[in-house]
Write a structure and sequence with these properties.
4 helices; Ribosomal Protein L22, Chain A; four-stranded antiparallel sheet; 11 strands; alpha+beta; 25% helix
Length: 210
């Protein structure tokens, strides 16, 4: 399937989504990896992890229309070595997503919705947050909260963040797409973010900028 979404979603933020239907060899043939990157992808024992890693890089190159290597800092935050865009990355099941911006810090999370999230909700939902009692919407509501907190975690550089203690999503009525408000409270202070969420088939996507 390949590139299924490539759009400027706000200001200079570009959201790209890739649906993985290619084999390892097909994805690899679309890239010119150096020796270090080849060693990295070949070390992954999980075949799906190899596909995710390759699809992210194909997606970046197609959106930017040029090769641009992804590198990581000591906290595993991704950067582009061409220094043109900030980047956030997420992948789940068959989809890979990126959010790019020249001028903003960005965070994105994409999750395939299984039926197990209610079992771990107590680990990331706090007493200030509201989850609907409607059984038909509860799974989606929980996934929006989880994805929003993952996006905040990434935009805050993964520093001193506990999903339950430091991140709060203000109450909202769940829809197929919308804008919600998230608060970050940790040793660095208090900050507020607007987060955009949408759904695609059985996936939830949440992104934010600052």
């Amino acid at each position: 399937m390949g590139l299924i979404y490539n759009r400027i979603v706000e200001d200079d933020c570009i959201l790209g989504i890739w649906e993985i239907e290619e084999s390892y060899e097909e994805l690899l043939s679309q890239l010119q990896l150096n020796g270090e990157d080849l060693e990295t992808v070949e070390r992954f024992g999980n075949y799906q992890r190899k596909l995710e890693w390759l699809s992210v890089r194909v997606l970046v190159n197609q959106i930017l229309n040029k090769p641009c290597r992804i590198v990581y800092n000591e906290t595993r935050k991704p950067f582009l070595d061409c220094n043109t865009f900030r980047i956030s990355i997420s992948h789940s099941h068959k989809l890979t997503s990126i959010l790019l911006s020249r001028n903003y810090k960005v965070g994105i999370d994409l999750e395939y919705m299984s039926h197990q999230i209610h079992r771990v909700a107590h680990k990331f939902i706090n007493e200030k947050e509201y989850i609907t009692s409607d059984n038909a919407l509860q799974r989606l509501h929980l996934y929006i909260h989880w994805c929003a907190k993952e996006a905040l975690y990434k935009i805050c550089d993964k520093q001193d963040i506990n999903f339950k203690q430091n991140l709060t999503i203000l109450p909202f009525n769940v829809e197929k797409e919308g804008i919600i408000v998230g608060h970050v409270d940790n040793r660095f202070g208090h900050d507020e973010y607007l987060l955009h969420y949408t759904t695609y088939d059985d996936y939830v996507i949440v992104w934010c900028k600052k």
